[in-house]
Specification:
2 copies of one chain form a homodimer.
Chain A (H helix, E strand, L loop, with lengths): L5 E6 L4 E6 L2 H6 L7 E3 L2 H10 L4 E4 L2 H12 L3 E4 L6 H12 L2 E3 L12 E6 L5 E6 L13 H5 L1 E7 L6 H16 L3 E5 L3 H16 L5 E5 H8 L4 H11 L2 E5 L5 E5 L2 E5 L13 H15 L3 H15 L11 H7 L5
Parallel strand pairs in A: 1-5, 1-9, 2-7, 3-8, 5-6, 9-10, 10-11, 11-12
Antiparallel strand pairs in A: 2-4, 7-8, 12-13, 13-14
Chain lengths: 333, 333
């Protein structure tokens, strides 16, 4: 294992977010499942967009949001994801580079447009996502820069990568390179429906030690083990993966490994504006904690802090310096 | 004069806003004049964008913001402005139509990209704009739908239209059609530097009765009459135009005509986040008041209310229902 050039390298579906405030009636009228991520084709994307009110656009993508958060805390971060060489792809590329993330995946010259997620935010702050993968589907193993993966302390992957088939191959290739170089491989389960689609494969990744760290929320954990019994699911998670972190919204999170379980409270938030990116930013804080070598309780606190920041405004990228925020709260940076 | 189909028709440069929080050092380093709008070419746009941090994108354009505000209050609104048939043009078109504004200007098939303004927002909430006009320069008299102008009670024009030469011709054509149909023509002076570029022409428009109503802020009024003496400038304004409305930031506004001057206070705001669109939304509220036939003091209150809403968040389009807000404050809708 050589000295790392990057603390965390993320791989994910590069997605531009088109966010609009709406109400529950809209979700119902358009057959959307509140709080979930639905994959949509171009025709559905056009129909959903046409029905939506005026929007705000902010770069997104689950792993990308996490990596931007990691960089914002002050760690060295890199990202691999596919956009098209179109106007939205250029906005996306600008934003992630401007966030001090190393990003040089070649954009697709042809094929579908840069991926977009049409995100409906209800008055309770919950977000419902309709994702058109577009160019994100074009990510292939050839996009995995082996030297970059080998030179990153932690490889962070999103479960959503399992949707586009060539991205899945890229995922597997990257994980193998990381482990060959004695790096840590982390995976977020992404979405309960995503877990439903790939339950057995995700369990294989965990039980076969392809991943060392799992991030999940309660719904994803419940979907993974097909049980509503949280304690039972958590016990299974502890058997299946070296380190598991389960976020529980306002109840905080639990960090679990073979040695035990640590519960960490959430940061109080006066008003939840938009939960988009809450899990992504939690992962950013936790990963940053691992990078700095703090104990799990403090890593959980860093995660909770970043999640609290991102749910207080529209969009899944931090709008306040996470580093300054951590310092203000006496957390390690 | 036939019955109006639209209450207000706006014509302006259709501009997509790319907003980023920054500090005063950035403005200084890049030679920007705080609070102003600078026209930039494509090379400068690329350089400014590259230097900027991660951004948020929201449709903008001065007159378009006003028209969206008018529609949000509940009036019948239409807009004429030029985008290109590109990705950003499609986002722009979606947003203005989703705001219930009639918009059917043919997008440019070739030529420069949809116009963008790179907007730097400093911690004090002030915005500094760098505008690449792009496709907005392609607006020509042929884009002026004479029937639509004739069927609109108020024609609202922005001084920025004086920058692209063919847009200026479109402006003059529209104003003539409006007056031929006994409609009111309103003009916002847009920006103190814009006034500096076209002072004599703007004064000719006023003194020649091409415009009936002028919106200006203190800096624009001062530039128009080349004096820092507010009272002297206001007295001149009252001579030069039938109705003049001058906004004075936290001091509110004054509405002036030959009969007298009415001062209207601003709405108190707890924190100014981003002043982008403050003048535009003031004009929206005032125009809506005219549409509803209320007296000038109440029209000024409606303007102040809309301006207060828009400066409390990022972006120049309302994020709260202006109609509901007016009702809450006991103002006419």
């Amino acid at each position: 294992m050589t000295t790392a050039q990057y603390d965390v390298l993320g791989i994910g579906n590069a997605i531009f977010d088109i966010l609009v405030r709406t109400d529950d009636v809209f979700l119902k009228t358009h057959g959307m499942t509140k709080g979930s991520m639905a994959l949509i084709d171009e025709a559905r994307a056009i129909a959903v967009y046409q029905a939506m009110g005026p929007a705000t656009e902010i770069s997104g993508g689950s792993a990308a949001n996490t990596i931007v958060g990691v960089a914002d805390f002050g760690a060295r971060a890199a990202y691999i994801g596919k956009v098209k060489d179109d106007q939205i792809g250029k906005l996306y590329t600008h934003d992630i580079r401007a966030a001090k993330v190393a990003f040089d995946t070649a954009p697709a010259a042809g094929g579908p447009a840069t991926g977009c997620s049409y995100i409906l935010v209800t008055p309770d702050g919950e977000r419902t996502m309709n994702t058109y993968l577009g160019a994100a589907q074009e990510l292939t193993p050839a996009d995995i820069n082996a030297a970059k993966v080998a030179a990153s302390s932690i490889l962070y992957l999103e479960g959503y990568l399992w949707d586009p088939s060539s991205a899945k191959e890229a995922f597997v290739k990257a994980a193998a390179i990381a482990h060959d170089n004695k790096r840590m491989v982390a995976l977020t389960l992404s979405d309960a429906f995503c877990v439903g689609r790939y339950r057995d494969e995700f369990l294989d990744l965990m039980r076969g030690n392809t991943v060392d760290l799992i991030f999940a929320n309660e719904a994803e954990l419940s979907s993974l083990y097909e049980t509503d019994d949280f304690d039972k699911a958590l016990a299974q998670l502890r058997q299946d993966v070296a380190l598991g972190v389960v976020t529980r919204s306002e109840k905080g999170c639990v960090v679990a490994n073979k040695d035990g379980v640590t519960a960490v409270p959430a940061f109080p938030v006066s008003k939840v504006v938009d939960t988009t990116g809450a899990g992504d930013l939690f992962a950013a804080g936790f990963l940053f904690g691992l990078v700095r070598g703090v104990h799990h309780e403090q890593a959980g606190r860093l995660g909770a802090l970043a999640a609290a920041e991102v749910i207080q405004h529209i969009g899944a990228r931090p709008q306040t310096s996470l580093k300054a925020l951590a310092q203000k709260h006496g957390l390690p940076v």
